[in-house]
């Protein structure tokens, strides 16, 4: 390959953005396509979903991030398909963008293990829109419970289930428990938000399976202290609006959130080559898609086997390291003709946050839990946030929340109307009550 | 009237909230109904629409504001009608809430002088949803222009018209001009955002008609320095998607915003009594609706005649003063049997912001302009924002923007898809270009 090559990156997440930055620094022409105008700092997305942060706090315009690189173009559009033979990326508006080198970094979507009908009743958390929707529905459950009169309906509405005991599930459960127990506690008249039932369901034997057993136990113990009910070794077998089935038992719920699994972005299939069980593109050690000369994949959409033959986990640090690596490797390849360099992953440790003062961190044999892990997590995440403004704002909000248990982003979107939610029983009972008022 | 009375307030804007707070302080039972869960600090809404602030920065949960008053109930629901004879407020979900005293504080909506078909192509700015929509469409116009190739289409997309030269129109024009000239300037490759045409159309002879001529001239001069084209004595006679007609001439536009007029909230009509030319309820000097014993109206939905017989303007300070007044007057009436007290408006001065360092302030003969007015405006608005957190966050964001011209909330909502906007000509031209890429 020699310049000028048409290099197209699809996806401006951690992986795609790092590739763009590295190529941009080398002055190589590149087009980065994304269906959002912003890069999203996904590790903090659960805080938008639980009303602790505003959406713009963790979203940065892609254009602004790459504006210092004049050879980098940003195309705001949605990729609908790939014409591999014609070497074209097809946009949903009918346009086609030619490429010589294609870099796919389109990430992942919630994965429902073949139960795609569950997507409508149990949203996952991947985009700003997901987070805003979850925030609205979460706050709405309490609002409708406040207007309901019969205790059964109130209890059902104030039962929030989270499916999946990995870091996202643990973070959501902890944050929702704190929201109900501290932030909302004094704001209602007919209900006691602190009595909300938060249920965390994990199909495996313990929470945080990627961590050591000791840290799993700590996380479970801390969540229980926040009032979270943990169900392990329980598989979900039914999900409908307002009802959750676990191991044959049915539970009335106000909201169910999905954190049990992800699948590769559907665009991976469009390449027309073999994918793994999660739909990921299998890449060689240089991040090139197996069997393809000019298509690369990285981040959550790629299956990169480590030394033991297992795929690397879907973590921001994996995506970021792969992005930096591929960017530099490709830049040297294109400008100096050097061979592509094999990628090696260096884990910087795993972390999960449970609540105030409570987090776990593990890197190999090094394990920390409690407030030191929490503080380290907070400092690292503020540091990692792109853009100085976001860092300052997020710090201020965190300090504020830390001091007061208050949350600043309790906004219910108007699109989510209050009348849309309560079941028929709740509605008739409510009317009766208000007639008496 | 004697306690216990069922007091219902509809609307938690500046007016309704002040009534609720005053009655809450007096320990009187009251229900405040709003179709949003938040109180909105409307004077800063244009900053959300122009990507300078996040929506949650200027929205505060109503429950949180009144939580210290145990006798105050918040009902999150939409009022669809009023059954005056049955003394019931009818909610859109079918419920009915009985009242003995009804206080209407439902504010205003954009008013199109009978041209309601213009609402779809020229959004006004009243709610968080309006602001987010305008922000998305504004940023989207530049994104689509970036992808267009023919200069005519680009010029059309980058023509933003604002109809109405009052404070809102001036603030929008100034803020959009700064956004295009400073914030977006370096972020695009094919267009020069700083060359965007911002047109401010005013049907009357000058901008800011409520201010003195000297300050009007200053505002016009400052806006022109920012590149805003001002058309006075020009009435809009045509509005369609992408086209604006002024005094017989047609101008291609990327976006038209409506700041030319407001009308009372449609709920005013539901009372079934006489309203003025803007649909406002005519109230006596105690804010009681004319001819009604137990219905009050205040803020933008009320027509309160001043000493000269002219209605008070639709300003936050009018709403707030009326709310505080009615709250105290009604509390004494209900608890001590005192007669209702006539309301007197005390103007704290009018202000409008044009841009960095540029604002006008006028109170009677006292007039200020320039950076002193701007600083006073900034301090006052931060102070007025409800909730300490918002104040801190907004201060930080303003300081940041002041130092860098940067904006933190440049988020295009995914609901607004890029393919939805360009006209048929633009789309075909774009495709041609990308085929060549």
From TrEMBL, chains A, B:
Residues 6-323 form the FAD/NAD(P)-binding domain. It comes from the Bacteria. Residues 427-437 have a biased composition (Basic residues). The chain crosses the membrane at residues 371-394. Keywords: FAD, Flavoprotein, Membrane, Oxidoreductase, Transmembrane, Transmembrane helix. Pfam families: Pyr_redox_2 (PF07992). Residues 414-437 are annotated as: Disordered. SUPFAM superfamilies: FAD/NAD(P)-binding domain. Its cofactor is FAD. Belongs to the NADH dehydrogenase family. This is NAD(P)/FAD-dependent oxidoreductase.
């Amino acid at each position: 390959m020699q310049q000028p090559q048409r290099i197209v990156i699809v996806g401006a997440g951690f992986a795609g953005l790092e590739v763009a930055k590295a190529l941009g620094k080398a002055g190589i022409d590149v087009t980065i396509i994304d269906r959002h105008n912003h890069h999203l700092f996904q590790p903090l997305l659960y805080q938008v979903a639980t009303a602790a942060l505003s959406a713009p706090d963790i979203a940065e315009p892609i254009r602004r991030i790459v504006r210092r690189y004049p050879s980098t173009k940003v195309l705001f559009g949605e990729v609908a398909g790939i014409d591999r033979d014609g070497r074209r990326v097809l946009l949903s508006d009918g346009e086609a963008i030619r490429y010589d080198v294609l870099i796919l970094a389109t990430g992942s979507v919630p994965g429902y293990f073949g139960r795609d009908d569950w997507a409508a009743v149990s949203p996952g958390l991947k985009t700003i829109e997901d987070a805003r929707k979850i925030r609205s529905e979460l706050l709405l459950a309490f609002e409708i419970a406040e207007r309901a009169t019969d205790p059964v309906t109130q209890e059902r509405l104030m039962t929030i289930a989270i499916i999946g005991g990995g870091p996202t599930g643990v973070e959501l459960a902890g944050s929702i428990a704190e929201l109900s127990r501290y932030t909302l506690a004094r704001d209602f008249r007919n209900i006691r938000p602190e009595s909300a039932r938060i249920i965390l369901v994990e199909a495996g034997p313990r929470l945080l399976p990627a961590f050591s057993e000791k840290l799993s136990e700590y996380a479970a113990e801390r969540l229980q202290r926040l009032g979270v009910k943990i169900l392990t070794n329980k598989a979900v077998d039914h999900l409908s609006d307002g009802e959750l089935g676990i191991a044959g038992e049915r539970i009335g719920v106000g909201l169910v959130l999905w954190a049990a699994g992800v699948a590769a972005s559907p665009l991976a299939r469009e390449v027309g080559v073999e994918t793994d069980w999660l739909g990921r593109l299998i890449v060689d050690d240089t991040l090139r898609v197996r069997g393809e000369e000019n298509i690369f994949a990285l981040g959550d959409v790629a299956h990169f086997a480590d030394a033991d033959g297992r795929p690397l986990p879907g973590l921001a640090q994996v995506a970021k390291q792969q992005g930096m690596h591929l960017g530099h490797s490709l830049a040297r390849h294109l400008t100096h003709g050097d061979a592509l360099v094999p990628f090696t992953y260096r884990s910087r440790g795993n972390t999960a946050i449970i609540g105030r003062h409570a987090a776990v961190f593990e890197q190999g044999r090094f394990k920390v839990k409690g407030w030191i892990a929490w503080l380290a997590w907070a400092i690292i995440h503020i540091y990692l946030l792109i853009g100085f403004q976001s860092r300052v704002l997020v710090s201020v909000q965190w300090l504020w929340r830390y001091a007061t248990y208050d949350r600043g982003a309790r906004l219910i979107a108007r699109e989510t109307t209050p009348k849309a939610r309560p079941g028929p029983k709740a509605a008739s009972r409510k009317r009766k009550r208000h007639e008496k008022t």
